Amino acid sequence: MNENILFQSFVLFFMMASGLTGLIMKRGITRIVGGPWNYVAGSRCEPSDSTGLMKVNEPATGGELCQVAVSGPGEVNRAVKAAKESFSVWSKMSNRERGRRLLKASNIIRENLKDIAQLEGGREGTKDYDIRCDVICRTNNQCSFPFIALAILRQHVPLEGGSFAMVQREPLGVIGGVGAWNFPMQTCVWKVAPALACGNTFVYKPSQFTPVTAVTLAEVLTAAEVPDGVFNVIQGEGQTGADLCNHPDVAKLSFTGSVPTGIKVMTAGAQGIKNVTLELGGKSPIIIFEDANLKNAVKATLMANFLSQGQVCSNGTRVFIHRSIAKEFVDQLVEQTKKMVIGDPFNEETTVGATIHEEHAHKVLGYVQSAKDEGATILCGGERVILPGKLAGGWYLSPCVLTNCRDDMKVVKEEVFGSVLSVLEFDSEEEAVKRANDTNFGLAGAVFTKDIQRGHRVANSIEAGTTWINTFNLYPTEVPFGGYKHSGVGRENGTAAIDAFTQTRTVYVEMGDVDCGPLYQE
Ligand code: NAD
C-alpha cells in the first residue's frame, strides 16, 4: 500500500469514527462539511470549554454556513499547552528536517489547489480567480520558507586574544496568531510557514467570519508529518483572541486586522513584554503621471481596487491622476468597471463576488452615501445588486468609481475595505507626493510613469512599507511586507520573517584567563 492510499484510509477511518461526512482530496486532506472546527494536538476537536456558538455566514447566499463553538480560556490554555509541549521536539529538529516536512506540506497544497480554492470560495464569497491567487501565494510562501530555514545561520565573531562569540538564532517559543477575515489562507500561512521554519510552534485564531480553512492547513501539516501540537487552531471572537494574546506562555503575537484591534493586541503584548508584529489597515495612493502607459495604469487601478470586492488591506483607493489625462483615464476606467461580472463566486466568468456579510456591506454603502453627501460624483456602481435564486440573500455590491473628490472627504480619508475608489486630480509631482503622504496609514503605494528617475524618486518619497513602480498588489514572498505609521509594526515575508520569529543568543567563549583587574589580589 503506498503512502497516499495509506493516508486516505486513515482519514476515511477517522471520518467514519467521528461520524463526519466530506470529500477527500489528494493525500487525504478532507473537505469536511461539518465540525468540529478546533484543531489541537494533532486532531479536530470540540473546545474543552465553550462559551457559546458562533453562526458563520455564507457570503455567497447570505445563509448560514455552519455553527462554530467558541473557545473559552480553558481551551486556549489547552492549545497553548500542546504547542508548548511540542516545542521541545520541533525546535530541536534540524532546520533541514523541518524544511523537508514544510516542503511536503506545500506540495500537498499544490496538489489540492483547486479543491482548496473551492473550499475557500464557498466560505469567503470571493471569486475563484482571487482565491487561487490567495492559495498560490500561500503555497509559494510555504515553499519559500523551508529553504529560508536552511539559511538560518549562526555567526562566529572573532574577538581579542583568540576568544570568540557565537551569535545563535533561536526560536521564540509558542506564537499566538490572530487573523483577519480577508484572504484567510494567506494571512494564516504568512505567519505559520516562517514561524514553523524557524522552530516555533503555533496557536492560531482565525477570524470568526472565515474560521474554516485554517483547519485545512492543520490537516495538511499533519499529513506532512509535522508533529502533533506544533500547529493548533482555536475558534472564537475577540475574547478568544484576547485570551490567547494575554496567555503567559505565548512568547510572541502576530496579528493581522484593523488598527483599533491592533492597539489592543499591542497593549496585551506590552503587558506581557511580548514581541509583536502587526499587519494593519491601509489607504494607499496610486500616482499616475501624464506619461504613464494608460492601459497598464487602468489595469492596475482595477486590480488595486476591485480584486476580492475591494477587501484588500493594501488597496490603492486614492487614485491621484495628472489633470491633463484625467478624462481619458476615467473614461477607460469606467468602461472597464462596467464590464465586470457580478455573480456566483464559483463561476469562472465572475469578477465580483459577495461582500463578506450584510453589516460590512452597509458600512461600504455608508461610505458611498457620505461621498455623495460631501459632493463627490458617482460615475458607476456603489449599489447592492440582488442576484436570482439562492444567491438573492448575498450582499453583492457594484464596483464604484467616484470623481470630484477632495482629500478631506470621509471616503478619501478612511479605510473603506470595499470596492469604492476615489479619483483625485493633481498638477505637479510635489503636490501629488505631499497629498499622498497626508494620512496616518502607510501600508503601500504606487507610481505610474515612463520616466525612470521620477519613478524611483516618487517610489522613495511615498511613506509606505511597499511601493510599486508601474504595477500594484504584488507580494512575492521573497521580499518583506508590512506598514509604516499606523499600518503596522514589523514585517512579514522575506528574510525579515526570520528576524520576526527568532531571537539571538550570544555565547561568549573565553580562551584566556578571567581579567577582573584589581578586584582580585594574588
Ligand atoms: P478586526 O480587527 O476586526 O479583527 C481581526 C481579528 O482580531 C479577528 O480574528 C478578531 O476576532 C480578533 N480580535 C478582536 N478583538 C480582539 C482582541 N481584543 N484581542 C485579540 N484579537 C481580537 O479586523 P477584520 O475586520 O477582521 O479585518 C479587516 C482589517 O484587517 C482591515 O483593516 C484590513 O486592512 C486589515 N488587514 C491588514 C492586512 C495587512 O497585511 N496589513 C491584511 C489583511 C487585513
Any descriptors?
522 residues; alpha/beta; Aldehyde Dehydrogenase, Chain A, domain 1; Aldehyde Dehydrogenase, Chain A, domain 2; 2 domains; seven-stranded mixed sheet; six-stranded mixed sheet; 16 helices; globular; disordered N terminus; binds nicotinamide-adenine-dinucleotide; Ald_DH_CS_CYS; Ald_DH_C
Provide structural commentary:
The chain is of the alpha/beta class. The chain has 2 domains: 37-281, Aldehyde Dehydrogenase, Chain A, domain 1; 285-469, Aldehyde Dehydrogenase, Chain A, domain 2 (3-Layer(aba) Sandwich), CATH 3.40.309. It is 38% helix and 22% strand. It contains 16 helices and 24 strands. It has helices at residues 3-18, 73-90, 95-111, 113-124, 128-150, 184-197, 213-223, 238-246, 259-271, 294-306, 326-338, 358-373, 410-413, 429-436, 452-459, 496-500; strands spanning 22-24, 30-32, 38-40, 43-45, 50-58, 63-71, 155-158, 164-171, 174-178, 201-205, 231-233, 250-256, 275-279, 285-288, 318-322, 377-380, 384-385, 396-397, 400-403, 420-426, 444-448, 466-469, 488-489, 502-509. The strands form 7 sheets. A 7-stranded mixed beta sheet has the order 16-19-20-15-14-21-22, with helices on both faces. α7 (213-223) links the parallel β10 and β11. The longest helix is centred in the first third of the chain and has 23 residues, at 128-150. It is globular. The model is unreliable at 1-24 (pLDDT under 50). Nicotinamide-adenine-dinucleotide binds at residues 178-182, 187, 205, 207-208, 237-238, 241-242, 245, 256-258, 261, 264-265, 279-282, 313, 415, 417, 443, 483, 488. Nicotinamide-adenine-dinucleotide is lined by residues 178-182, 187, 205, 207-208, 237-238, 241-242, 245, 256-258, 261, 264-265, 279-282, 313, 415, 417, 443, 483, 488.
